[in-house]
């Protein structure tokens, strides 16, 4: 489909198509069984491809975890990750010595830059009931000039993330979670020190929007230079510019157009990703995103030689103490606890 407001519509699954400057978005929604006392999975793993389980068998995947679901330590270079944990908890550890436990609406922003190793595991803390997890991981590119910036990470705690609450003409509620980019007059929290997205001139926006059933929302126009995508990921249907869709979809839309978005007969959730394209060549393989094949090879060589600082933790599937609450330990020793 193509018109002056909606350029195209694509179906989405667990991994979503993205537009420059975004590289990749994964939506993980799992209902894990109860955990053991050591936070490992309590059910049999027979029939799964352990080490690379994306099966969604019985409503959950182990991913690259062997006893605890998640992503054991692995490297990144040349981009940023934004991890939004809407439900459940994630445990972060990295080669800088940073660590954290976050979730229930928290966001972790990590600029990999010159190179970092990290793990993201899902500790199964509940031993009596199921352990649901819903999260998004968004990969945001860095331009050539910023590929080798110093890596860093930051926690955006859900208590601090700005929420804009609106009502439509019928009194239906609309909530906009402002993760990146200014929405109307509401500014986001600061991201990492070397984040390309933090520069307002790049028009990067990441907004999670919740519409009550039948709510109508107007998405304001943005800069004509931007790429803008609207992802409808939860609800029975959605109408964008009078086009109604009943399945999970991505709308690539005109950034200069104000769009009328209407929820169906149930609570509706969308994610808006927008930003000016970087417009550079992209060479990527696995965890590295560079501009040329030669730079990719150099990234592999550097990782083999330095391990991006090594792994200071005693486990590949690193999880923190079961009784720990939400926290962030930074490489400089600063500790935040929630």
Provide an overview of this structure:
There is one protein chain. The protein is 4% helix and 42% strand. The protein is mainly beta and 338 residues long. It has 2 domains: 1-12 and 162-276, Jelly Rolls; 22-42 and 68-160 and 299-307, Jelly Rolls. Strands 1-19-16-21-14-13-12 form a 7-stranded antiparallel beta sheet, with no helix packed on it. The protein is globular and about 55 Å long. It starts with 5 loop residues before the first strand and ends with a strand.
Tell me briefly what this model is.
The protein has 338 residues and is mainly beta.
Keyword list:
4% helix, 6-stranded antiparallel β-sheet, iron, Pirin family protein, Jelly Rolls, 338 residues, mainly beta, Pirin_N_dom, 1 helix
Per-chain topology:
Blueprint: E1 6-11, E2 15-16, E3 22-32, E4 70-76, E5 79-87, E6 89-94, E7 99-103, E8 107-111, E9 116-121, E10 131-141, E11 152-156, E12 163-167, E13 173-180, E14 205-211, E15 216-219, E16 227-234, E17 238-240, E18 243-245, E19 249-253, E20 259-263, E21 268-275, E22 283-285, E23 288-290, H1 293-306, E24 327-329, E25 335-337
Antiparallel strand pairs: 1-19, 2-3, 3-10, 4-9, 5-8, 5-10, 6-7, 6-9, 7-24, 8-11, 12-13, 13-14, 14-21, 15-20, 16-19, 16-21, 17-18, 17-20, 22-23, 24-25
């Amino acid at each position: 489909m193509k018109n002056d407001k909606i350029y195209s519509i694509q179906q989405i699954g667990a991994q979503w198509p993205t537009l420059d400057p975004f590289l990749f978005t994964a939506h993980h929604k799992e209902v894990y069984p109860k955990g053991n006392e050591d936070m490992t999975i309590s059910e049999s793993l027979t029939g799964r491809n352990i080490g690379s389980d994306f099966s969604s068998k019985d409503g959950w995947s182990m991913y690259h975890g062997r006893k605890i679901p998640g992503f054991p330590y692995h490297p990144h270079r040349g981009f940023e990750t934004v991890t939004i944990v809407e439900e459940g908890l994630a445990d972060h550890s990295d080669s800088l010595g940073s660590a954290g436990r976050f979730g229930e609406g928290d966001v972790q922003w990590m600029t990999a830059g010159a190179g970092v190793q990290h793990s993201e595991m899902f500790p199964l803390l509940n031993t009596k009931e199921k352990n649901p997890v819903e999260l998004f991981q968004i990969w945001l590119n860095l331009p050539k000039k910023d590929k080798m910036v110093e890596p860093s990470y930051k926690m955006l705690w859900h208590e601090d993330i700005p929420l804009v609450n609106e009502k439509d003409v019928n009194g239906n509620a609309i909530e906009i979670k402002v993760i990146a980019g200014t929405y109307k007059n509401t500014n986001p929290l600061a991201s990492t020190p070397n984040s390309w997205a933090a520069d307002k001139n790049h028009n990067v926006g990441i907004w999670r929007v919740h519409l009550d059933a039948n709510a109508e929302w107007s998405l304001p126009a943005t800069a004509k230079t931007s790429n803008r995508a609207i992802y409808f990921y939860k609800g029975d249907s959605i109408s964008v510019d009078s086009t109604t869709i009943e399945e999970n979809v991505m709308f690539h839309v005109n950034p200069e157009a104000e769009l009328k978005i209407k929820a169906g007969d149930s609570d509706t959730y969308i994610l808006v990703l927008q930003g000016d394209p970087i417009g550079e060549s992209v060479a990527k393989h696995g965890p590295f995103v560079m501009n040329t094949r030669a730079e990719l090879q150099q990234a592999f060589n550097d990782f083999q030689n330095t391990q991006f600082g090594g792994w200071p933790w005693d486990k590949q599937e690193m999880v923190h103490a079961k009784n720990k609450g939400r926290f962030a330990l930074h490489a400089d020793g600063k500790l935040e606890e929630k």
